[in-house]
Each structure stands twice: as structure tokens, then as C-alpha cells.
Amino acid sequence: MVSRVDAVLEINGLRKTYRSAFKGPHRAVDGLDMRVEQGQIHGFLGPNGSGKTTTLRTLLGLVRPNSGRMTLLGREVPSALPEVAGHIGAIVEAPRFFGNFSGRRTLRILARAGGVRRARVEEVLELVGLRDRAGDRVKTYSLGMKQRLAVASALLKAPRLLILDEPANGLDPAGIREMRDLMRGLVEHGTTVVLSSHILGEVQQICDSVTIISRGRRVAHGAVDSVLRAQDKGEFLIRVADHERAAQTLRHAGFQITTERDHLMARGVADPAIITETLAAHKMWISELTPQRPDLESVFLQLTGTVPEPGVTRQVGESAAAFGHGAK
User: Which end of the chain, N or C, is surrounded by fewer C-beta atoms within 10 Å?
Assistant: First the structure.
């Protein structure tokens, strides 16, 4: 019997090293700590090669760690995996199904193998928006539809913990919104979701908390708002009639000022009212004073070393093994 716990997933000091005769040892996960609270959508973020998939596969007993401690639903894994497997659904890496089977038949086979009542198949098809195409062969499905089918397979046992690796892969904007609504609905009914995704704007919108890793190590964690605030550098965009004169005045007053083509950037500003007062004292009037708050994408890129410090255009581009009721 798996009891209710506050932390549905906890990792302490996880390490995993792969060894190759040609490339030598590669430490994929290097002392990782991670904690996911009950009833959250938790974003698990990192660039390609950062150790995300290795971490998830290790949690699910697919990879043997070198050291560290892991618990799922309050039970230590991998030793307790047989006890918790029926309460966990997961999609890790690319979905794989038999192309000649229909989506409905695929789920019925998985349900029968997992001891799930047949009616649950129709419920999960409805949940993921596949009911109208359930009778079609999987080989006719788009990538996005296969993602939906993978999510459906992970939901068959109504899991308490759902781990999703890139669930929005191949979905159009409407499909992404439907996936977002689905995850929120699951959380409202008691499921905790761990979400790995490269659509960082979506992660910022939907997740309650995040863990960001780079080179196998944790570089940030906590509530999304807290992580963003920790990286707030007090930047403000300033527009005024005479940029050069304003820049000189503000620098003389001790502000860090960068001159751009049609505006100024001030950094390290604790109280923006002082900018207004300083310029007004010299008969210069501000037409715009806008805080430049960090978003999750910019924070991610800075913390993982994907790009240099701010000042460049920021864009990010980074599945079916369903644990406990897998599809291969």
C-alpha cells in the first residue's frame, strides 16, 4: 500500500557515469538533487545532453545509478519499484506503437496486460482528444496524435505521478493548449505531473515549480516566480529626447547605463523613481521607463551557459515507454 506523501519524487546526490572504450568515462548525472511536491506541475529543464533523460530512466529502473538515493511516492527506488509502479505513468523518449493496430486496440491490449478495466480505454481516449480517430491505424497518425496516444497509455492506471518527456512534441498551438488543460485537470484530481519540455514559454505558463540542470548538475530550483526573481538584474528600458545627455547624467549619478539605437538600458536599479528624479532635475523628461523582467527562457539560457550574458536575441528550440503500462 502506497500512502500519501508530501514529496512524490525526491533525488539526493544522484550520479551516473557511462563508460566507453573509445571516448572514456562520461558523467551524465553529477550529484543531482531534486524534489517534487504533491499536487504540482513541475518543470524538469535542461539543454540536450544535460542528463534529463538519464535521470528519468534511472528513476524508472531503466538505468542503474552509480550512487545516490531516490524515492517515488515515499518509497525508495529501485528496490520498491514493484510496489509503486502501478501508481506511476511515464513517457520517456519517442513513442513507439504497432503501426497496423488502431489506437483503441493498442490501448485495450495495454489495459488487459495491466489489469485495467476496459471502460478506462474510452475515458483516456476522450481525455487526450483521440476518440474520433481511435479506430484508425496508428501508422496513419501524425506525430502529435502519437504523442496523444502515448499520454493516453500513461493515463490508463490513473497514476498519482505522471512523468512526461516532451509531451507537446508535434502538437499544433491548439493541441498544446489542450495538453495544458489536460495536465491542469489531472492536477485538480490529485495527480502530480513532472514535465520535461523545450517550449519554455509554455513551461513558465503551466508549471508551479522547476528544476533546471546543466551538465548533470542542478543550477536552479523552486517556485517559478522565485527562480525568475532570483535572476532579476534590475534592468529598465529608458526613452528620453536626448539619449546621450541622459546617459551622461545617469552615469554621473552612479547608474550602469548602456546606450542603444533608440533607447537606454539601465542595470542594477533598485528604485526606478530615482532615474525619473535624476533626469527631471536636469530638465529631461522620460517618455518610457519599462522594467525588463526576466522570463524563463532568458533565465534558462543564462544558467545553462547556452548563450552569453543578455543583449542577444533569445530563442530555444529540445517519449512510448509508459511505466507500469508501457508501449513499445
Answer: N
